[in-house]
Specification:
This protein is α+β, with helices and mostly antiparallel strands. The chain has 9 helices and 8 strands. β6 and β7 form a beta hairpin.
Length: about 325
């Protein structure tokens, strides 16, 4: 004998089991709502007494994607959030994450990372809590649209500070140089000086910043040595010339470091490591000590005159022909009959 079934296709035992299941879900919903002082909570499909969505069926209630909160409840939450925002004069709430001593500030870099993001961070006051597969607690929210809630005042202030610091970091180098120049100019003008600080060194002519070895004494930076140095050159890889005159020979020695030496009747240089130009610097010192002076019109004070190309030689002109020019042919004009 089969058991009697109701028009809905369930037996009394199955209907009693479903009633007990619904009562258990209702009790869980009441406990969750009471634990948050009546604040709206988003439940998963099983707790809400609805058919399971695919996420609940596959991954469990903690992955539920359905929103079982009625739209009018969401509208009431948005209205309450805006009312609280207006009551505190659009300032941060009592448990704002950006206040000093908040638990969020204990997490290293969290507040700075949120302040750097471009997306607005909205206030969580009056937002529905998320209870899908877990106990509802502060920090888990399930609003229908974050943009409907007021922007967090603490985040707005932190974002403005972040943008101001970034703009100041970009403008600080030019601003610092401008302030230093203006302050320096005021001090110099107040003291009646032309220049404040150590006297400036004269600009060096040419590329003569190499150091001559201690055996040759000072650097090759005097104007007389510079003038002689500008006249020296190396031709055919070994011959040292001064203008168009051959005055020395360059020697090269290979080892751990390539060394060069210049010998001449006026003197010779020691072995110098580096490029041949360093040996020319030392050779200029040797020449100046031997009494050599730069030619007139050369050197850093008087640069050599520009090179002028001599005129090209032309051959003798061809004699002109004495033959008279040929007469132009006469044009015949015929009149039509």
């Amino acid at each position: 004998m089969t058991r009697a079934r109701k028009p809905d296709g369930l037996t009394p035992a199955e209907r009693a089991e479903m009633a007990a299941f619904d009562a258990e879900n209702a009790r869980r919903r009441a406990e969750m709502t009471a634990s948050v002082n009546g604040r709206p909570v988003a439940f998963d499909c099983e707790t809400a007494g609805k058919p399971h969505c695919w996420a609940c069926a596959v991954y469990g209630p903690q992955a539920c994607l359905e929103d079982h909160i009625p739209p009018q409840v969401h509208d009431a939450c948005v209205t309450e959030a805006r009312r609280l925002y207006a009551e505190r004069d659009k300032g941060p709430c009592h448990d704002c994450a950006f206040r000093r001593g908040s638990p969020e500030r204990e997490q290293e870099g969290l507040i700075d990372r949120v302040a750097r993001q471009r997306e607005s961070f909205h206030c969580h006051q009056a937002m529905p809590l998320d209870g899908r597969g877990r106990a509802p607690a502060e920090g888990d929210y399930a609003p229908d649209d974050h943009a409907r809630y007021p922007v967090c005042a603490g985040w707005a202030a932190a974002r403005e500070t972040h943008l101001a610091r970034r703009a100041a970091a970009r403008a600080m180098p030019s601003l610092r140089a401008r302030v230093a120049k203006s302050t320096r100019a005021k001090v110099v003008a107040a003291l009646g000086l032309q220049r404040f600080g150590k006297p400036r060194r004269r600009a060096r002519v040419g590329t003569l910043a190499r150091v001559v070895p201690p055996g040759l004494g000072l650097w090759c930076i005097t104007r007389r040595r510079q003038a002689v140095r500008l006249e020296l050159s190396i031709v055919q890889q070994r011959q040292v010339t001064r203008g168009y005159r051959l005055i020395g020979e360059l020697h090269r020695r290979a080892g751990e470091q390539v060394q060069h030496r210049i010998t001449s009747p006026l003197g010779e240089t020691p072995w110098i490591s580096g490029e041949p130009g360093a040996a020319l610097d030392a050779f200029a010192v040797v020449l100046v000590r031997a009494g050599v002076r730069a030619a007139i019109g050369s050197g850093p004070d008087k640069p050599p005159p520009p090179y002028t190309r001599p005129p090209t030689k032309r051959g003798p002109d061809k004699p002109k022909s004495r033959r008279p020019p040929r007469a132009r042919p006469k044009t015949l004009m015929l009149r039509a009959a």
